Amino acid sequence: MRTARVLVASTRAAAGTYQDTTGPLLVQWLREQGFETSDPLVVADREVRGGVEKLLGADVVITTGGTGISPDDQTVEAVQKYIDRPMPGVMHAIWEHGLRNTKFAVLSRGVAGMAGRTFVCTLPGSHGGVKDGMAVLEPLLGAIVDTAAGQAHEGHDPAYVKAQAGIIDAFITDHPIDAGKARELTATRAMGAVVTFDGVVRDHDGGEPVADLTYTAHPNAAGVMRAVVERIASQHPNTRIFAVHRTGALQIGDTAFLVVAAAAHRHDAFYAAMAVADAVKAEVPIWKEQHLSDGRTQWVGIE
């Protein structure tokens, strides 16, 4: 069954001081279009990026709110990071439809496109703006989802390709990371794309010269990392994923964090690797103690 998810970007609604109605409106509409749709995810404006990342993997993700021009409106910037195939024509059609009702429609920023296999579209936080989006998207969503599925070639891949997908490993270690071994474990003859993210220690941070550093992990970090990678893997069911983060003392040039993603097709591998890298950095409690060249020490990641 086709799946859709709705994200509401509203700091007031997330705090419980405002009752959002655009999210339920979108959910009801998507269900009427035949999509399996859960209740809206409501997040504060500053948490949109993490919220969007959690919903990716559905066929459709629609956001409402955070598309204006105030400093708090961050939805467009958060969503743009994930879109690898922009569809500007969709937004132009929504703006054109909105101009029939109000000249202020063009003041709402927006973005639409494919994030991996997920179609994502940002709509304003007003009822009028949401209805404009629904009117434009209603005849398009089915074709978008069907076309995206066709481009992914999933129906043309042998069954054993999907059978090979999953987590190869996801762990934290205090030993040097062997990127070659990780790639060897992750790649197979069925995987036509292997993407590696190799996060290495650099010699500067925030304009300060760095001599070396030490990573420290919370006792629960390994479990959190495994759960994060499992979530990403479930959103990319045709991808093999390997992820490892280093702890302890590291020198400039050492590998601190490695992600390897392998899939039959490049879009799956690229997007899965990026999603794992972003989610691990954002969610796994690992802290960095930087030793600067002048003898000072800086902690990064502790709030």
TrEMBL record:
Domain MoaB/Mog: 5-144
GO biological process, one term: Mo-molybdopterin cofactor biosynthetic process
Alphabetized SUPFAM superfamilies for the sequence: Molybdenum cofactor biosynthesis proteins, Molybdopterin synthase subunit MoaE
Keyword list, A-Z: Molybdenum cofactor biosynthesis, Transferase
Enzyme Commission number(s) of this protein: 2.8.1.12
GO-annotated molecular function: molybdopterin synthase activity
UniProt KW Cytoplasm keyword: no
Enzyme class: transferase
The protein's annotated pathway: Cofactor biosynthesis; molybdopterin biosynthesis
Coiled-coil regions, chain positions: none
Record's protein name: Molybdopterin synthase catalytic subunit 1
Lineage of the species this protein comes from: Bacteria, Bacillati, Actinomycetota, Actinomycetes, Mycobacteriales
